[in-house]
Amino acid sequence: MSILIDKDTRVLVQGLGKTGQFHTDKAIAYGTQMVAAVHPSKAGTVHTFEGETDHTGVAGRADTYRTQVPIFADVRTAVAETGADVSVVYVPPPGAADAIMEAAEAGIRLVICITEGIPVADMVRAKRYLSGRSTRLVGPNCPGVITPGQIKIGIMPGYIHQPGRIGVVSRSGTLTYEAVYQLTQLGLGQTTAVGIGGDPVNGTNFVDCLEMFNADPDTEGVIMIGEIGGTAEEDAAEYVAAHMTKPVAGFIAGTTAPPGKRMGHAGAIISGGKGTAAAKIAAMRDAGIEVAPTPTDMGSAMVKALG
Amino acid sequence: MKIHEYQAKQLMKARGIPVPEGRVARTPDEAVAAVAPLVEASGNAVVVVKSQIHAGGRGKGRFKEHPDVGGVTVVTDGISGGLAATESRVRELAETMLGSTLVTIQTGEEGKQVNTLYVEQGIDIARELYLSILLDRAVSRNIVMASTEGGMEIEKVAEETPDKILREEIDPAVGLADFQAGRLARGLGLEDDAASNFVSFVKALSSAAVELDTDLVEINPLVVTTAGEVMALDGKMAFDDNAVYRHPDVADMRDTTEEDPAELEAKRSGLSYIKLDGTIGCLVNGAGLAMATMDTIKHVGGEPANFLDVGGGATADQVTTAFGIITRDPNVKGIFVNIFGGIMRCDIIATGIVEAVQRVGLSVPLVVRLEGTNVELGKQIINESGLDVIAAEDMKDGAQKIVELAK
Lengths: 307, 407
Prior knowledge:
Largest interface: A-B, 65 and 56 residues
Number of strands of chain B: 19
Oligomer: heterodimer
Radius of gyration of chain A: 19 Å
Number of helices of chain A: 9
CATH architecture of the largest domain in chain A: 3-Layer(aba) Sandwich
Strand content of chain A: 15-25%
Largest sheet of chain B: 6 strands, antiparallel
Distance between the termini of chain B: 37 Å
Order of helices and strands of chain A: EHEEEHEHEHEEEEHEHEHEHEH
Distance between the termini of chain A: 23 Å
Strand order of the largest sheet of chain A: 3-4-2-1-5-6-7
CATH architecture of the largest domain in chain B: 3-Layer(aba) Sandwich
Number of domains of chain B: 3
CATH topology of the largest domain in chain B: Rossmann fold
Shape of chain A: globular
Number of strands of chain A: 14
Helix content of chain B: 25-40%
CATH class of the largest domain in chain B: Alpha Beta
CATH superfamily of the largest domain in chain B: Succinyl-CoA synthetase domains
CATH topology of the largest domain in chain A: Rossmann fold
Helix content of chain A: 25-40%
Structural class of chain A: alpha/beta
């Protein structure tokens, strides 16, 4: 089992520019079913992806692949023609929020938005548009979602993952890789790893992922990786204390970050004394979460939490 | 992106939001020339001379060179002495303030040099209120915050008397509704003209915030005049960096003299850099990992000299720029490169590091931790370069090594 995506997921890519093409190719090499693309200026054509199979992904495939992905002008047509149920957005910032809304309107169940640098006001409107609809958004400004051995959607390197027992949810891309790699080296592996993104307005949050991991029979523990800014980690700690039946380990980046400075991510800022790492770590420890003192200790913190 | 008070007031005025009349001055002569028209137009003999820097607390701030002068000074000499007395006092103040260093609670000890003054008409104030518009992450919407405690630090009000802060969510599809503006007016105890003027003010300000993609609009104080007018006596605006591209008029307001030159150079190269006070320079890919690297350095007993995220697709040129920025900081006693190459391959990073060190030169120890795609090739490139580089096993090992070497 897994959460959000598995081997049967049919994926649509929105934005087949240079970045979209590169990562779609890597996803296909991993074994992801990329069934359609939406890119108005290339509508009606077919993009051929071919190369060497990434054998760290879906097992039992030939050593090379050649996949033809039809390109459509809009999401509604693409869904009608191909039955895609999940979309990944690589559309550049000015049009990314619009792409999210278009996917939702077409009935896509899960939109994973990789794009970094979307104006906050656009995301505020997109979230308003999503309210009352059944579409779930992951991101923006995130590495994506991967269920090792089954499917990879996003920009994460596939080979550091391993099918296994631990759920990973993180606001930071490279810190997710760090945690995943440690879990792989420890032989624990991952059920699903979800990057929820570093923006102040995003779709899926920690609590959503914790709920799903809690309900997933194959997930035995969860690593959550937060950073300074906002109160999402405090909310997650509250959920863990009240509802979580599985051990949780965690890490918070930004103990040394100065107040008032945006630390790369738009959402990573301590303002008005709120959103400090100390407050988050304290809330997590109070909830029984095993907080790693440094990122190098995330894997061992998970081992400790598992008992 | 931040702008000055006078620029925020220009943007407000252009949108029909009441602000006092004022003039910008970059020389004492310009400051003096501002006085007569302001006094004439307002019929008020009082003017205010306000330092324009990107930091709050200017009123209570003091100049390093002139500890008796405040960053915002009210000139009342004209009440008894007439225009000439006002002009003479304004000249004296402008000569003192321009070019001097203002220290406020937000500037840090080093303070900020004042290059621009804003000379403004005096206002007969009946009440001082607080008003701001900012993102509430918990609801993913902008909210209006208002309080009767104008002129106070809002964080303090929030902590000590949270019931004195009124909040209204702005629905992005509707804007601030009339009933919400009315509820705020009643909550602030406003009546008659003042209430209706406030409603127009807050609705216009909410629309402006949405239109201009602001991160924050803060009016502290918002004043009610003795005539019942509602006016922005101060005005602070900051903009969403991701949206500035669609507001060229706002982009033109950027005052680069207010920004750290190294941070500016980094930004121009697509790097995210923030200078800190420690001795260990850091070069990392990814914002979260960059923060975590700083934390790890601190955890093992060192102090980071900077935050530096080279991003997901750094080029050799960017890595070179990054090295240049780090090595120019005289506090740096050692450099820690921490890369988890996912899509970005370790061999490319390694090539970038070697080129950068060869171009920039290196006088302090360098520890490199590489992990990810093509890591063996990356390590080989560094080993064969002949550079004096210490390899680390993992992030913590690297942090320990560089902190030890930098002692």
